[in-house]
Predict the 3D structure of the following.
Amino acid sequence: MPVLRIPTPLRPYTDGQSDVTVSGSDISEALTDLTNQFPTIKPHLFNEGGELRPFVNLFVGENNIKDLQGVNTPINDGEKLMLIPSIAGGCHCFGRKSAALAMTVFSRR
């Protein structure tokens, strides 16, 4: 069976498990099995329309399913799958000129 690696922020929804064994012949079936095992993870992976959220990246080996066949990507027994959520952030509190000024001020300290 394929093994799905769960990132740390999503582990509370898989009872703390970092690796979950899933069944299925493609990504869609594997994700269905995952959400059947751990229903509370579903809204973190899928939108209200049942589509995989755009910030969820799923890899089969080293290949992002977005570069393959999406959720229809076939998987084999023993395949290593990895969920990797996109990380966003940073501060947009400075405009370009203000950021340059702040960098100048901080560099003089």
The CA atoms of residues 8 and 100 lie 35 Å apart. The two ends are 57 Å apart (CA to CA).
